[in-house]
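YM 10:42: PPR3D phosphatase sequence, as discussed on the call
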Amino acid sequence: PPPLLEPLFPPQPGASPGFAERVRQHKVRLEWVRAEPAGLRGAVRVLNIAYEKAVSVRYTLNGWASCAEAPAAYQPPAPPDGITDRFAFLLPLGASAAAEPTLEFAVRYRVAGAEYWDNNEGKNYRLRGRQRIPPGIPHDPDSSAWIHFI
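YM 10:58: structure's back
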């Protein structure tokens, strides 16, 4: 089975107090992420500065020795605040995530000749890969013990 990606940050920053103000101030913010068998799915909120805009997610599985970039797609309808737009992304990780213990990513927003990044305050968004226990195999929480007394 594919590994479970465990966020090393709160997986729903958009639910935290002051989120709308952070979007206004920084122009782009991660709203939420969710690990799925197909990869990492998430949403980004951007300040609606101009009609034409591009949002993408740059990510790595090897500590930035190499990286890839996935585009994010506009998600109508616009949020009810009237000043932001929502974009959704899917990072297709597949089997490559099983070999690497950590996924890191940052969000890029290009609009009106400017570029804005959300890199989790300089720490990047990091998720740790954790192997799932296949169904039907009992999990013994004491299996790491040296001696098991009955």
